[in-house]
Each structure stands twice: as structure tokens, then as C-alpha cells.
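new request in #modeling-help
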Amino acid sequence: MDLNQYLSMFLDEANDHLQALNEHMLELENSPDDVGIVQVIFRSAHTLKGMSATMGYEDLASLTHEMENVLDLVRNHQLKMDEMIFDTLFKSLDALETMVADIANGGTGKSDVSSIVASLKSIVSGDYKKEQSGVAVEASENEDKHAEDQIDEFQRSILEQSIEAGMHVLYIKVTLQQTCVLKAARAYMIFQALGSHGEVVKTTPPAHEIEQENFDTGFSIFFVSGSGVEQVKKDIADISEVESVEIQMLTIEDVKNWNDMKDAESQAKQEAVAASAEVAASSAVAESPADKSADEQKANRSVQSGSSGNKAVQNRTIRVDIERLDVLMNLLSEMLIDRARLEDLALDIKRTDLTETVEHLARISTDLQSIVLKLRMVPIDVVFNRFPRMIRDLARSLNKKVDFVITGADTELDRTVIDEIGDPLVHLLRNAIDHGIESIQDRVAAGKPETGTLNLRAYHSGNHVFIEIQEDGKGIQREAVLKKAIKNGLVDADKAANMTDEQVYQFLFASGFSTAEQVSDISGRGVGLDVVKTKITSLGGHVVVQSKPGQGTTFIVQLPLTLSILSAMLFRLGDEKYAIPLTSIVETGLVRKEEIRRVHGGMRMIDYRQGVIPLLSLSSMFGCSGYSDFEEDEVEIIIIRKGDSVAALAVDDFIGQSEIVLKPLGNYLKSVQGISGATILGDGQVALIVDPNALLK
Amino acid sequence: MAEEIKVVVFKLAHEEYGIEVEKVKTIERMMPITRVPKTFTFIKGVVNLRGVVVPVMDLRGRFGLPEAEYDDQTRIIIVNSHEMEVGFIVDGASDVIDMNAEQIEAPPEVVGGVKAKYLRGVAKINDQRLLIMLNLAEVLNRDEIIKLEELEA
């Protein structure tokens, strides 16, 4: 069978399951006694095993198989979760992730997992706890296998009463054919058929497991029947794909002694083909062919129809290749360009019906645009979900206690931003744990709780998304930062005294602060923070720091919702047209020539509010041939701001405000100073987008 | 068995040049070009190629030949190579010919004022036409220009 067509589906689902496993393991770590979570984990692991086996990734399958064995013991209360088990399971998850990533990169997914498999096996056998003797575990395991076939007090009394009332109590063993594809459906048909004869008292495995196909080929039923053995047997045997039916009529003695009898039988049974016992008992490599084919069928089904286990909680969603969305986006942006062109034409031609149609088109395309933009929005959860695990490991390795709280994981951001924001956030979070939150001793000494709190918040505000990383650690020492800044020549001592804390903290992002030996001087802040800032700035966002000594530090990252469509002011320099993003414009205005002052060095300044700001000549910066603002009597200006620096740009003429589609200049012109990209105007011409951040350096 | 190749032939100054046809996306007439400030002088700017912004360079300028006025013979050849899409402004594009890869010989030091490293070779067509094959990797190499500019500055 050609499995390539399933590969991308396999990878998607494998990643989903790994993510789910990670999340639930963390959940379980917080409440180790919750068997419900173990069930969920078990199911994910089981599906993953089946999928991997179908796709022929044996190492993946064998590792998940061992994990499953451990989890199986846990959910049957045979084993209590402890630190060692958690660590081993987490290690297994890491190994699985590596293998899946390898497959995604075209690899074979092969990996030496023998050491992890060995430690998982030692957990199953109980060897890792020396005080437990091997024999005792063996015995308890056997007990476990057959506990399933046993009946409890309540069930026994029902059975006894039924017999006394003259009903037949039947013990039915049904085996389905190994080729049976829809086992759950067959099982349902069997129960349906039984329904007309009487009442099912108990099934092994339990009914909900059967519904989810969590059985191999057979199951057994305690049945109270009004009809005779032959009648029931015939009805079940009539259902197709049933391999065999064994029915045993139970007497009241049988029922009374059932459990003892089963125990006595147990040894013999283990050697028989009792498939479910075999799965747990056999090692991964020596999986019996029957199990394997059953698993394959299961996996086949789940690959084809999506993970069936959690169908109920799934939204009505479809997976779409990101590239298709990008194509849609490109098509839309071309349509917007044509719309602008049509609007121009309609204005020229001045025909009412044309104008109306164009206006209608404009409205529709605006709606379309907002929907397409929404389609590209991804909850930031896809970035956040890998953090809890990272924080846990990091805190553990640094011997710190950290309570990590995520809020607003459903906040949505454009995919282009999502793709880029992960690394900077990792950096900030690592910093927060490494250098922000103190060691347990220090915290206790400072009168704080042992466990530090790390908050990761995301929320919308206006056209921006904010991400806050807040810890209650020791805070940033202003003096230490300033000392370093002065030493590095970033600021002189006189000025430094008057700077706000905010301004001082910005020095942390200067590249000089990022070398290792300086880190210890300033309480560790600044490891690669310059990289973080560069990345965030390139995404059109910025980052600020708030800190109180002794109380903690907050990094606030502000990001635009989307990168590809932006509101901009169009203006002219001679016959050249340019655009500048509205977000960085403070206001526009007009200055007369005599209001422009010249300071030495030829720099021109103008009065603005209470201060003076530089007047920058775009036409000379861009070397325009047809226009120079120096010759004008009155100069139109655009006041732009970036952080605390403000400047005025001299332009020729304003054209107006417009939604523009950001286009790259192409690979050949990767970076042009002062230009962040281009857009196509309604007349089909290209206008360059001015990068205000570069001008305000 | 020698490799058959198809080549787009264009004129620059007095010579005929060739680019493999699979590297050429389209050939366009002259169109409005938006100047891009602060870049190499031979970059004339960017054009709107059906919704995609594409930089265009004057190939004469790139090779250090004197630049000429654009007329109605002028063409922009959009090439797609080395993950870059760039337009070459040339004096005219005449035709597409079939030739044999074996016909390409190593280029002499300088052909028509163009340095050998920009050339893949020279091919004789029908004993009278001389076709100069371009080495696109070098023509599109930015590092060398940047180094040159640093030297001058």
C-alpha cells in the first residue's frame, strides 16, 4: 500500500497526539491520582501506536507500546505515579517528538530508544523499586488480567436472583474475525441482537471500551436471557464477521464460585490466546501477529477518518494547507488593487450606475478582506502550548519552583506573526526563570513564597496584540544597568541621572549587554535580548520593560494583528508616490519656511508642542530629482514617532489615506535602507512604503 | 548525445546574448518603473508584474556599458533564477533558437566589454552569428557589487 498520501495526515495527527500527551501529562503531574486523565493519555498513546505501526514506524510504535503498558498499570491502580515514572514518560515523549520531527524532515523516524524502553519495562516489572519482589508484581499482574473477567458483589447478586427467577444466565464469548474492519459496529449489532433476548449484566472489556474499539478481536458478556442457549447462539452467529461464539450456561453454583474458578484458570488462560492480556504481557518486539493486524486495522481507520476517540469535543473545522490560504490572500490583494483602480475609473467616468456598482463591490471586498484575514488568524495557543513543558524542565534543572500561568491562549494573531514570535518568547521566558525568579533559598530569605509565579498573558487591544511575561522575582537593578550602560558608552553619567526607569531598562536590549560576563553584573538580564528586540521590531511591534526591585519584572510585547494589509498615508515627493504606515504617524501639518530653524551642522529643526524636533528631508534622503522641500515656502510635514523619539518628515503633497497590501521588494533587493516594502496603487503603479523606524534611528 | 537547449536571444549594445529559456519567465515591453532610492545605480527600480513587485536592472549598467535611451525596441526580460526574480532591461529581444550545448565554447577574457566571469560561454550559430551565453549566477550575485562599493567608499 502506498502510504505517502497518508504521511502528512499522519504527521498532523501525530503532532496533535503528542501535544495532547504533553498537556495531559502536565495535568496529571498536578493531580497524580486522577485516573480520568490517565485514561485520556492512554487513549492518545494507543492511537499513536496504531498509527505508527500502520505507517511502518516500528520504533515509534514500540516506544508508545511500552508507555501504554505503564499507563495501563496506572489506570488499573496497579501502579502509582511517582517522579521517576513522570520523568521516564516525559523522556519518552521527547524521544517520540524527535522521531516525528525526523519523519517530518523526510527521515525514517528510526531512533535508538532501547534505554528508554528498558526503563519503561523496569517500571512495568517493578524492578525500579527494589523493595518490591519480582514475584509479587508478577502475581499482581496476573490478578489484574483476570480481574476483568471477574464479577463483583452487585453483579453476582443480580445473576443469582435471575437464576432464582428462572432466567438463564449465560456467559458468552464472542470472537470477531481478524479481518473485521468496523469492530465496534459489529459489537453493537451483537448487543442489538442480544437486546431482544434479555439483559446484558457485564461485558469484558467494559462497554465504553468496546464502543471505542478498544478491544482486539474478542469480548465476553454476562447475559441474563429469557431464551435458550441455542436461540441466542444462532442470533449472534448470524451476524457476519463473527468468527466464533461460545456460550456457557451458568448454574447458581457457577455464579457463586465464578471468581475462584477464574483464578484457578488464570495460569492456563494466560497461555491461551486471550488477546488483551497478551498485549500487556508481551514485549513490544514480539508482538503477536494477531495484535498487530488488529492494530493496523484500527490505525487505518483512524488515519482515514481522523481521531475518532474525541470526536465529540471537536469543532466543525477543516484542515487547510497554509499555502492555499496564502494564495487566497494574494488573490485578494490583487483584487483590492483592481478595486482601487475601478474606484478611480468610476470617479473619472461619473456614471451613477457604475459608481453604485463599484461601491457595492468595495463593500463586499472589504467584508471578504476581513474574513480572509480572520481565516489566517491562529490562536496563540499554538505557540504557547509548548511552553509549560519547557518551563517545567527549566525550573527543574535550575532547582527552582515555578507556577506557570497562561491566560489568553485563545487570543488570535496572524499566522505570519505567529510563525515568528515563538523564539523571542522562549528567550524572554527563559530569562524570566533563569534570572528573574530567585532560587528557593533566596525567596525564603526575602520573605516570599517558595514557588515563584510566572504569568504569560496575551490579549487584544485595538489593532494590537499584547503579550506579557510577568514574574515575581527580584526585579532589575536600575543602578547596575546604568553603570553598565555608562561603561559601554551608551549614555553619559549626567544624562543618566534624569532618565526614567523605562528608558534605563531599554539599555538591556542594546547589543553590548548581551555578552556573558556582563550578564552576572546586572543580575543576568540581557542574554540575547537585543535579538529579541530586533525580531519584534521587524514584526512591526515593540517591547517595553517594567520592573520593581524585589517584586518582579514584566516584559510587554506589542504586536500588530496582521502584517500583510495595513492602513497607510499616501504622499507625493515630486512625481514619486510613497506610503507610510498610519500607526507611526502622530499628526500631519504645515510649516512655513521662516519657522524652520537651522542648527549647526545644517540640521533643520521645527517647534513642536513644547519642544523642538528635527525636520528630515525625505526628498534629499531618497535623492528625488524632481522635487526638493528646501525650495518650498510652505512645507507639508508628517510627524512620526517611535518610542520616545519624534521627528517631522517634509513631503511635497498628501494624497490620502488608504488600505494597502504590503509586498516585498523581491529577493534581489532584500533590504533597502528606509524602505520596508512596496505596494501597488490603484493605477497599477508601485509605491514604496517608507519605514519610519529606520528614519528615527 | 549532446544536450539540446532553447535560448532566448536579446541584444545589448552591438552583441547578441542568450539566456536558457527555462530561466526566462516573460518578456515585457517597457513599463512604468518606480525608482528605489539608496540602491545600486543600475537598479532602475521596481515594476508591477501582474501584482508582483519585481526589481529591474539595466543590464548595460550592470556590465558597466554606457546606458542608452529606452525606445520601443527596449524590452524587460524577467528571469527567475537562484530564487530571485529580476527584470533585465535590454535593447531588444529578437527570437528563441534551438542550439546544442556542445556549441558553447569557453569565453575569451572580454566580449563586447563584458567581463568573462558574467559569461557562460560563446556559441557560434550558423557560422556567422555569435551568441554570448550569460552566467546568471554571477550576474545576480550581489556580494561582489557590495564589496566593490565598499572599496570605492
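bot summary: The CA atoms of residues 152 and 259 of chain A lie 9 Å apart.
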